[in-house]
Amino acid sequence: MNTRFALPHRRNHITQKVKVAGQRTLYINVHDHEQPAEIFLRVKGSDCSSELIRLYYVIARLMSLALQYGAPLEKVGELLPGAKFAPCGPVVGHDCIKYCTSLPDLIGRHLLIEYCGREDLVPSSQVHVTTP
Fold this sequence. Notes:
21% strand
């Protein structure tokens, strides 16, 4: 697809706030649509440099552009899980994800579980409630 999907001027978003390893807060903000085409990421924490904050901004822009040019959300989401670097550890604030190996791991699994129905990524001891 060579044409960019035009987003409406006014759109709803769903924000998921999580805390990773008790030190970093991540806000995942996704265009509220059955096929999301816009993602915003915001990281906060005492160790967050301006470079790190901008890096996650760039990651979100690249993901959004890929989706707007027709890349399937599942393919975009599958690129992220499994990345291993700090911060990693226990996740607080997400119904289905209780541990991550990195922030990209968390972002990818969040997109796959919430928007692609990938229940295989939810630990079997947890019951997942799909949000509208």
